[in-house]
Amino acid sequence: MTYKTLRWLAVLPALILVLAVQAHEPSEHMEEAEKPKCSEMKDMDHAEMDMDDPVMQAMMKKCKQHMDKKDADSKESEHRHSESDDDATRKSQHDH
Amino acid sequence: MTAPRFLPCIKCLIAALVIAIAAALAFIYSGLYPVGADDHHTPLTYWALETLRERSVDRASSGIEVPADLDRSERLLAGGADYNDMCAGCHLKPGKDESDFTLGLNPAPPNLTQPHQGEEDLESRAQHRFWVIKHGIKASGMPAWGPNHDDERIWSMVAFLRRLPELSPEQYQVLTARGSAEAPHH
């Protein structure tokens, strides 16, 4: 019985180690600071988006900067965003 | 009149018990048990292990209070990024249906991008998942994430798991990316 238990004590850390190593494979590494690919969202029909859906709200939040920058000047809007992210959700929730 | 003499045969019972324990020990020390992960259990063992796991998680998680705000978009973003970093290797992501871990682990990690099977309600599923993520599952590849992650973070992953099966690969990518959006080039 003890042997079996001990075996798992050895196997589990090994597994976790393997996983940590895996995360350092080059292909995984690229994903570490991956940027959201927002270009697909830009092309979506705004009228068809369901803004009540948390998934859509989350995507909008992630891509807000991207979408706004289409017509705003970079520096100012970037500044505004860092402060207004929260307001934006609250507003969109109140809208309904 | 021999039957009554069998009942109080305590010595026989003890002898049987000792023999059983000795046999079990001999088996353990013999090295005959195939411990390889690629050697599959018998259906009976699978049933016993699965039932044991389900009953245990069910009992242990039954009193857990599920936060009312699992629907918040902030939860999806926090849970999504964590899921992608820590779980997708084993539990997959949209557009991927196997990995070294799903092929090699025994028991195999369930594919969490597939709609959940089973008739438990949303509430108890959330309780189960929270408990499993926090405490892990003994003698399987599922680690306990509790030691290094607070409850809020774990709940956010539970929230993300609820929506994961309906996400397209593109939606998944946007929700789980840790970086911030790049301005489109003019």
From TrEMBL, chain A:
Protein name in the entry: Secreted protein
Region: Disordered, residue numbers: 61-96
Range of residues in the leader sequence: 1-23
Domain of life of the native organism: Bacteria
Chain intervals with Basic and acidic residues compositional bias: 65-96
Alphabetical UniProt keywords: Signal
UniProtKB/TrEMBL annotation, chain B:
An example Gene Ontology molecular-function term: electron transfer activity
Keyword Heme in annotation: yes
Residues in Cytochrome c domain copies: 68-165
Entries under Pfam families matching the protein: Cytochrome_CBB3 (PF13442)
Transmembrane domains' residue ranges: 12-32
PROSITE patterns: CYTC
Keyword tags: Heme, Iron, Membrane, Metal-binding, Transmembrane, Transmembrane helix
Record keyword Ligase present: no
Entry protein name: Cytochrome c family protein
Phylogenetic classification of the source organism: Bacteria, Pseudomonadati, Pseudomonadota, Gammaproteobacteria, Oceanospirillales
